[in-house]
Amino acid sequence: MIELHGFAQSNYFNKVKFVLLEYGIPYEEVPTAPSQAEPMLAHSPLGKIPFIVTEQGSLCESQAIVEYLAASYPEKRIFSADPWEAAKERELMFFIDVHLELVARNLYKQAFFGGTITDATKGRTEKLLVRHIEGFKRLAKFAPFVRGERFSVADAAGYASLPLVGQSTQIVYGRDFLAEAGIDWRAYLQAFSDRAAALKVNADRKAAFARGAIWKGN
After folding, report:
1. What pLDDT does residue 217 have?
2. Is residue 217 included in any domain, yes or no?
3. What pLDDT, on a 0 to 100 scale, did the predictor assign at position 38?
4. Which of 56, 76, 96 is the last residue of a domain?
5. Confidence label for 211 from pLDDT (cuts 50, 70 and 90)
6. Angstrom distances, CA of residue 146 to CA of 59, 64, 111, 164, 175
7. Residue 138: Cβ-neighbour burial (10 angstroms; 0-12, 13-18, 19+)
8. What range does the domain containing 190 cover?
9. Minimal CB count within 10 Å: which of 146, 155, 175, 208?
């Protein structure tokens, strides 16, 4: 059985967990914090989570894990059967992970962990995020899901990460950059209200925060 290592406060852990739950792939959850200890580095070369442990070995990076799951369980149809649709799903996931969340991550120290970031970081991040959100709007449908009327694997990334972008910009700048651009991510979350995978991910995330965060940010 696949072991999923990480913790419920991590959006990338939750992205993988959402996929495992949504597509009914058996797994065991193993609470694991980032670490530079040698045993951890044997599984994740930068000591990051999430990573999975399989019979073949270990695999890190959330998108690589999702791709592995899709290839290993073709009957689950994690990505669309149509090559174009599958490519568009991957495109959206890349935009969310890299062009939105990874940029917004520069704000998390101040937004979520009690630290302070420099004015230069704020200015640089604002310019990038505003530009990248406008690009994302040209791709995303939100009708109600990111690719259109039908749920797709791209929504695992959207569900896990878009709230962090909106919340962090609201806290740091006093403006929700997503909402300001016309992306109602709160309404988007409502589209998941009857999805068991989303409910499980969210409940576990809330419970983990209630117990006390084990990750203090970069």
Report:
1. 37
2. no
3. 93
4. 76
5. confident
6. 27, 21, 25, 16, 22
7. exposed
8. 83-211
9. 175
Q: Are residues 96 and 184 in the same domain?
A: yes
Say whether both 118 and 49 belong to one domain.
Answer: no
What region does 176 belong to: left with phi over 0, alpha with psi -120 to 50, or beta? beta
* Mean pLDDT of the region 69-93: 98
**Rounded distance, CA 6 to CA 64, Å?**
15
Q: Are residues 96 and 38 in the same domain?
A: no
* Distance in angstroms (rounded) separating the CA atoms of residues 30 and 130: 37
Global pTM value: 0.94
Predicted pLDDT of residue 209: 80
Considering the domain architecture, whether residues 155 and 95 belong to the same structural domain is answered as yes
Structural domain contains residue 163 = yes
- Distance CA(151)–CA(195), nearest Å, equals 10
User: Which of 147, 153, 144 has its CA nearest to residue 20?
Assistant: 153
The pair of structure tokens assigned to 217 is 């940010």
CA distances to 42, 60, 174 from 53, in Å: 11, 9, 41
Q: Helices 154-173 and 196-211 sit at what angle, rounded to 10 degrees? A: 40
In a domain, 193, yes or no: yes
Same domain, 119 and 24: no
